[in-house]
Amino acid sequence: MNFIEKLKIRAKECKMTIILPEVMDERIFIATEKILKEDIAIIILIGKDEEIKQYSNKYDISKATIINPFTSVNTESIINEFVKLRKAKGMTYDEAKNILLSDYMYYACMLVKLGMADGIVSGACHSTSNTLRPALQIIKTAKNVDLVSAFFLMIVPNCEYGENGIFLFADSGLEQNPDPLKLSSIACSSAESFELLVGAKAKVAMLSHSTLGSAKHADVDKVIEATNLVKKRFPHIHVDGELQLDAAIVPKVAEMKAPNSEVAGHANVLIFPDLDAGNIGYKLVQRLAKAEAYGPITQGIASPVNDLSRGCSADDIVGVVAITALQAQKMKEDQYE
Fold first, then answer.
1. How far is residue 132's CA from residue 136's CA, in Å, rounded to a whole number?
2. What is the mean pLDDT of the segment spanning 232-257?
3. Which residues, listed in sequence order, are joined to residue 44 by a DSSP beta bridge?
C-alpha cells in the first residue's frame, strides 16, 4: 500500500467535511466521484445548478452536498456575518453580497468560519492569491503561529533517502524571501506537518549552498541565524544547518561534511532559504525523479485551506483532500486539549 493510500484510510476514519468550490473544472467532479466512492470525506460543492450540470453529467456525485449561493436559505445570514467580519474595512451589505455571489472561494471561507465545513481545497483553475486571500481575510492565521507558509509533500520512488523516499519541502509555494525569524517559524510548522502526515520524527535541514561554514555570504548568515533561532525557540525539534542538500540527505557525504550532526545525512524535512530555491527544487524532483508532489499545502491558517497546482490531476486533488481532512482533524483535537 502506497503512502497516499494510507493517508486516505486515516482520512476515512475521521470523515471531515471539505469544500471544493471550483465547479467550473471537470477535474473537480472526477475527484469528487473518487472521494465519495472511497468514502474519504464529506464533500460540499458550491455553484449554480447550471454550473454543476455542465461538467458533472458523466460522474456520480449524488452523495455530495451541493450549495447554490443564489438560492441557499443560509446566504442571507452569511452575507450579514461577512459584513460584521469586515466592518472595520468598510464593508457594506451590497459589497459583501456581490463578493460572495461572484467568488465562491469567499463563500466557502465563510462556511468554514461559521463551522459549516472543516476545510477547503481550491486552486485547480485559480491562482494562489485567489485561494489564500479570502482565507486570510476570513479564517485568519491560527493562534500561536507567526505566519502562514506552504509545503510540498514529496514521494520519491525507489529512494533510500529521507523517510523511505518521503520528504517535506518548504517553503515551496508562498513565502518569497523569509528573514531568519520567518524561516525558523517555517521550520517549526513544517516539522509538525511532517509528523502529522508521515507519523515519523521530523529531521529538519536548513538548506544553503554552504555546509557549517564552508562558504561566507549574507545568504549563508541568514540560514545560520534561522537555525539558531529554531534551536532556541523550538528546542524539541531535531534541526541542523546550514547544510548543503547532499550533506543533508546522503549519509556518506554527511560523514565528511558534518560528522557530528544528528540530522545531516538523515534529513526528511528540507527548509529552503527562499521561494525560488524551494519552488525550483520541488519541480526538479517531481519531473526528473518522477516524484509525486502534493501541494502547495498550507500551514498556519486557523482551518485548513489548501492550494492546488493548476497543473494538478484529479488524483492529486483526491490526495490533497485526504491531507486537508487530516489537518482539520488535528486542529479539532488541539481545540479540546
1. 6
2. 94
3. 19, 65
d(CA 210, CA 242): 6
- Tell me how far apart the terminal alpha carbons of the chain are, to the nearest angstrom: 32
pLDDT over 70 at 337, yes or no: no
The pLDDT tens digits for 12-32 are: 998 899 999 988 888 999 999
CATH code at position 56: 3.40.50.10950
Sequence-distant (6+) residues with CB within 8 A of 87 are none
Q: Give the C-alpha separation, 320 to 29, whole Å.
A: 15
Whole-prediction pTM value? 0.88
Total domains in the fold of the chain:
2
Residue 300 lies in a domain: no
pLDDT exceeds cutoff 70 at 336: no
Are 108 and 135 within one domain? yes
Q: Which domain holds residue 222?
A: 149-288
The sheet carrying 166-170 orders its strands as 238-243, 203-207, 269-271, 166-170, 149-155, 292-299
Q: Phi then psi for 314, rounded to 5 degrees? A: -60, -40
Q: Are residues 136 and 18 in the same domain?
A: yes
Helix axes 180-198, 314-335, angle to 10 degrees: 100
Give yes or no: residues 28 and 48 share one domain: yes
Q: What is the CATH number of the domain that holds 244?
A: 3.40.50.10750
Query: Can you give the pLDDT at residue 153?
Result: 93
